[in-house]
Amino acid sequence: MGTHVIKMPDIGEGIAEVELSQWHVKVGDLVVEDQVLADVMTDKAMVDIPSPVHGKVIALGGQPGEVMAVGSVLISIEVEGAGNLKESAAPVVDKEPVAPKVEAVVVESKPAAAAPRPAPVCQGPMVAREADERPLASPAVRKHALDLGIQLRLVRGSGPAGRVLHEDLEAYLAQGQSNASAPVAAAYAQRNDEEQIQVIGMRRKIAQRMQDATQRAAHFSYVEEIDVTAIEELRAHLNEKHGTSRGKLTLLPFLVRALVVALRDFPQMNARYDDEAQVITRLGAVHVGVATQSDVGLMVPVVRHAEARSLWDSATEISRLANAARNGKASRDELSGSTITLTSLGALGGIVSTPVLNLPEVAIVGVNKIVERPMVVKGQVVIRKMMNLSSSFDHRVVDGMDAALFIQAIRGLLEQPATLFVE
Q1: 209/203 Cα distance (integer angstroms)
Q2: What phi, psi does 264 have (nearest 5°)?
Q3: Alpha carbon separation from 282 to 339, 340, 408 (Å, rounded)
Q4: 289 in Cβ contact with 301 (< 8 Å)
Q5: Residue 399 is among the residues annotated as catalytic for this protein
Q6: Cis preceding linkage at 360, omega within 30
Q7: What count of other Cβ atoms lies within 10 Å of the Cβ of residue 86?
Q8: How many other CB atoms sit within 10 Å of the CB of residue 96?
Q9: pTM of the prediction?
Q10: 366 near 223, Cβ under 8 Å?
Q11: Nearest-5° Cα angle at 403, 345 to 388
């Protein structure tokens, strides 16, 4: 038997170190070639590290949250044959064996089709976890469990590394083990447990970027109310007529189109500000970042050259990028290079929000939820579909008057949707 040492690979772009985000294996696990061993986080994306060999894990080179230099020992695997460690008896961390090149896999937006996931199998009514143990689950699954009254720590997860999936909640309910059967008094029991969550990986990057943005930019927000009745009627009509052949349209491609048209008169919004060099770069190309919530946090995939896209082209690209981001499959190029950002909380959009700028951009347009309200139109009280745009700007670059006029221009385009397509 020998030892195969895998070093932290050179991911490119001049990156000298990366953060170890998550292990998918532990000491003693048997692994096969191409199995994902760990996730590492660069400044731009999450990267999978696969195994180049079959074998047994005998040592891990770091802990989640640790920043590791390129070339440092990541993992050691016991393999048949000599392996790639010349003196296998010596401590792995003290050696610098010459390892075969390990390719860091950044899965692109069109990965090979994966085998269908088997239906979750609950091996018993519940799984025993410690009271302070936090099971792996996405925010959506946690909210679903809360809505169903299920203690997530009692549910057996069938996903990678024991991650709890929506199917696992359904399987749990099917066995009649929801909290609805627990005594009512349990809901009023005193609790003294605490939970500490390490800020690592994507969450750390998000925290750093948000802190950096609020410290460096001079934020100010502007909120405008928009009557979206007409644009929603147009959207419904287009979906009814072309939905089957071209795909369904959400409101987002209309908002992207409105941004593109409005930016013709307000080019100062489609810009990046280098505050160290004191240079503002206005761009002709409109690369719209679309803020997307994923299991690992907020990501901003980029719809490139939105100025050259039709409604359906934008819709298709938004859907493709959003799915790639949510599945952790977006490439570095797809997550960088935006010139202005569009952010939306969808049905949870609330009445108003204060978006944080995506530096070095100088403008971000936030979309709130659509609600039906009585409005006075030509002296008559009628029910209209209303929505707020809550947008933020960098006051070092954008004047308040220009910001207000820009958002009002978007409002005019959406309230008179024919103007979106008049050249």
Answers
A1: 10
A2: -60, -35
A3: 9, 11, 21
A4: yes
A5: yes
A6: yes
A7: 12
A8: 11
A9: 0.65
A10: no
A11: 30
Q: Which of 34, 212, 274, 399 is catalytic?
A: 399
Q: Along the 423 residues of the chain, how does pLDDT read in single tens digits?
A: 889 999 988 776 567 788 888 899 999 999 998 898 998 887 667 788 899 999 999 999 988 888 888 889 999 999 988 877 754 333 333 333 333 343 444 433 333 444 444 444 444 445 555 555 677 887 778 878 887 888 888 888 888 767 888 888 888 887 764 444 455 555 667 778 888 877 777 778 888 888 889 888 999 999 999 999 999 999 999 999 999 999 999 999 999 999 999 999 999 999 999 988 999 999 999 999 999 887 777 889 999 999 999 999 999 999 999 998 888 788 888 999 999 999 987 667 788 999 999 999 999 999 999 999 999 999 999 999 999 999 999 999 999 999 999 999 999 999 999 999 987
8 Å CB contact between 302 and 289? yes
Q: Given 219, 227, 395, 402, which residue is catalytic?
A: 395
H helix and E strand count, the chain: 7, 19
Name beta bridge partners: 105: 48
DSSP state of 372: E
Is 392 in contact with 355 (CB distance < 8 Å)?
yes
* CA 134 – CA 126 distance, rounded (Å): 15
Helix (H) / strand (E) element for 48: namely: strand 46-50
Go through the chain and tell me how many residues it has: 423
Closest CA to 362 of 259, 254, 305, 281: 281
Run of H or E including 386: strand 380-394
What is the spatial distance between Cα 348 and Cα 366, in angstroms, rounded to a whole number?
12
Q: In 322-362, at which residue ranges do the beta strands (DSSP E only) sit?
A: 340-344
Structure tokens at 113: 């089709």
34 is catalytic: no
Contacts of 143 (CB under 8 A, 6+ apart): none
